[in-house]
Amino acid sequence: MQAHKYTLAILTLFLVGQLSAQAAEPKANTTTETKAVEKAEEVVDELLGKKDKSGDVVTASKETLFITSKTAFTLEAKDDSSSIDYIEWKPKSGDYRRFTQPIRISEEGATEIHYRSVDKAGNAEIPKVLVVVVDNTAPRVNLLPAEQFFVLDGVPYTSKNNSYTIVAEDKNGVDKISYSINTEANKTYAEPIKLEKGGANVIKYAAADKSGNSSPESSLIITVDDMKPTVEIVPSLPLVDISGKAFAKRGNVFHVNAYDKESGVKKILIKLDAETEFRPYLEAITVEMQGEHTIRAIAIDNVGNQSDAVELKFNVDLTPPSSVIQKSDKVAEPAAVKPEETTPAPAQ
């Protein structure tokens, strides 16, 4: 009998997200995706050279399809001679059945679709197998800042130097992660995100897996504090200008005040005179040493912005003046004394 040639095509009616991801994926996704692909490849390897119940050798495609339970398959076949009588298929565990309507797989995980065609002369095609991974679960997505937020009145504050990593996890592998900043169009996530604009920013993000499942869009409002705090050194008593030099009065103390309108002041640091390192400002500064002095101060806010340094120079004079009394060579004349005026008594 003349050999027959068969061609069997398997098509998808509703197949989403089967292409490999073109964008770079975060490292956190690599493990789950690799395991899923390796598992599917193991199934294919087991099928290669394996015989079905009829003794025919099963052939399998090395390509693995990632699908959902909504994905449908249709079978088509052609025969150059006696034409096709019927096409049949079966799931991994089950018996062959005639193909009459699109095929759907409800069970999640790696599975197989066995299929073959028979012509009207009774020639049966060697069975073929398609390995599919059914996944109906959307990826889990998280946005992770490199630096922890400072939360004030429910508002997360951060510095302009912070960066943000979007991590998506899916048991069968993430296809892509997308995000947008403020009113910008969606982008494919490939590397940590930086926020360039000060003030409130909105990051929106989502992920899709290889089966086409998409996570709900998540969003996070982040306030970027790019304003430096201000700091001042204030004496309790005004300094006295003497010959162009500022002198502190005895008992004077110095207060250091700092202000920040965004995330708030975290700490104030000071240095006195020749000190090499700044130290925390804890209380008003008292200087009780003779000579010239310098107080330096800086402030740091709750997201790490540092103020410009300020300094105050002044002199302390703790030496009291010295007075002397001397005998004068000039004799002082006694003051003339006028007789007291009397008022005559009234006549009797």
**Which structural class do the helices and strands define?**
mainly beta
Largest sheet data: 6 strands, mixed
Name given to the CATH architecture of the largest domain: Sandwich
Query: Which superfamily, in CATH terms, is the homologous superfamily of the largest domain?
Result: Immunoglobulins
- Using only C-alpha atoms, the radius of gyration works out to 44 Å
The CATH class assignment of the largest domain is Mainly Beta
How much of the sequence lies in strands comes to: 35-45%
Query: What is the CATH topology assignment of the largest domain?
Result: Immunoglobulin-like
Label the overall shape: rod-shaped
* Number of beta-strand segments: 26
For the termini, the CA-CA separation is 184 Å
Counting DSSP H or I runs of 4 or more residues, the number of helices is 1
Low-confidence stretches: 1-32
Number of domains: 3
* Average pLDDT, all residues: 83
Helix amount: under 10%
- One letter per element, helices H and strands E, the order comes to EHEEEEEEEEEEEEEEEEEEEEEEEEE
Question: What is shown here, in short?
Answer:
With 348 residues, this protein is mainly beta. The protein has one helix and 26 strands.
Which features would summarize this protein structure in a list?
Immunoglobulin-like; mainly beta; 348 residues; six-stranded mixed sheet; 3 domains; single chain; Ig-like_OmpL47-like; Bacterial group 3 Ig-like protein; signal; disordered N terminus
